[in-house]
Design a protein that fits this description.
Strand content: 15-25%
Order of helices and strands: HHHEEEEEHHEHEHEEEHHEE
Structural class: alpha/beta
Largest sheet: 8 strands, mixed
Number of strands: 12
CATH topology: Rossmann fold
Number of domains: 1
Distance between the termini: 23 Å
CATH class: Alpha Beta
CATH superfamily: Alpha/Beta hydrolase fold, catalytic domain
Number of helices: 9
Length: about 350
């Protein structure tokens, strides 16, 4: 009996009061030790744009989508790998193949790559983080980038970085052709400033129907409220996930006011970042955003900056044997006692 370990399951836009029709987790799920759900805590001055999603906060994440953690960590692996030798590091993480379709490194400072990853059933554009803080400030109109976004603004430096990458790649022609040729999904990801640029890329390419999923990690506030509403409508619930390692300083570096957070926030916590809590419907939920007082955690999202994580696929008997020897190294998200046992896990 082999483990069915899926990396390609698509995240659906979750409509109010409707869970995904395909469900691998059951009521017999083996629950992790931590099963906290998020509160709706936020500042009184901020009005969440999708309160109709908040009921999902009472549902353990693996019952909503048992593959969520795989999507989070593999996009995070790519974002962190962008700081290192991703062409050499990532093939061992993605055994079905890891093909770098395009590299970019612009004069304005935006670097990254586009990769074809059959394990994920995706073409992914990865934006490397950028440390120059000037990119965070000063709003700029983005109506010319995103349709149906009256009054949308983004930090000027973020727009500059994105436009430089868009020009360098001829409006992502290589990525678009690969998606069409292989009939697969299209996503973007990035860490810190790279995450902000990835979010703008998602808005630009999502408005044209090209990009299906938007991921970022450790992203600061760089969009105004009108942009937040447009982004969240394009990438609903799990289609637009924004990860926060517990109390990461970067997430709070720009205060709530002119700019707000985009995307469904997901906090990862625990010694191995093996636990997660979703904060649906409220991007400013303090449960996920944290205090912003942790600087060290910023360089580790499932894997250290410059690395590409690992892939472990072993038989059920081997997992059970290793689990009995050292259970603290495993995280099991779903366990179904049926003739076809399915477990979503990772080993640190």
């Amino acid at each position: 009996l082999k483990i069915q370990h899926s990396l390609s399951g698509a995240h659906r836009a979750i409509r109010p009061r409707a869970l995904p029709s395909s469900q691998t987790a059951t009521s017999d799920a083996l629950q992790p030790a931590r099963t906290n759900t998020s509160s709706i805590s936020t500042r009184a001055t901020y009005v969440p744009d999708h309160r109709d999603w908040e009921y999902l906060n009472g549902i353990p994440w693996w019952k909503t989508d048992a593959t969520q953690q795989d999507h989070l960590r593999f996009h995070a692996y790519l974002s962190m790998a962008a700081y290192g030798d991703y062409a050499a590091l990532c093939p061992s993480t993605f055994p079905k193949g890891f093909t770098v379709l395009e590299n970019f490194n612009t004069e304005d400072g935006q670097a990254g790559f586009t990769a074809l990853i059959p394990d994920m059933d995706k073409v992914v554009i990865v934006f490397r983080g950028y440390d120059n803080s000037h990119s965070f400030y000063w709003g700029f109109i983005v109506e010319d980038l995103v349709t149906h976004c009256q009054g949308c603004t983004v930090a000027a430096g973020v727009k500059k970085l994105y436009l430089s990458a868009k020009a360098a790649t001829n409006n992502w022609q290589v990525a678009k052709k690969a998606v069409a040729a292989h009939c697969i999904k299209f996503s973007v990801t990035g860490h810190a400033m790279g995450g902000a640029v990835a979010a703008l890329a998602a808005m630009d390419l999502g408005a044209t129907g090209d990009v299906h999923y938007s991921h970022n990690q450790a992203m600061a506030r760089v969009f105004n409220y009108a942009s937040v509403v447009r982004y969240d409508n394009l990438f609903q619930a799990l289609a637009g996930q924004s990860i926060v390692a517990k109390d990461d300083y970067m997430v709070q570096i720009i205060p709530l006011g002119k700019f707000s957070h985009v995307g469904t926030k997901v906090v990862i916590l625990g010694e191995m970042q093996q636990w997660l809590i979703n904060c649906y419907g409220n991007n400013e939920n303090s449960t996920c955003l944290g205090t912003g007082n942790n600087y060290a955690i910023h360089d580790n999202y499932f894997t250290p900056k410059g690395q590409c994580g690992t892939a472990h696929k072993v038989s059920l008997s081997a997992i059970l044997e290793r689990f009995s020897q050292n259970p603290s190294r495993f995280h099991i998200s779903a366990f179904s006692l049926t003739s076809h046992t399915s477990i979503s896990f990772f080993v640190m």
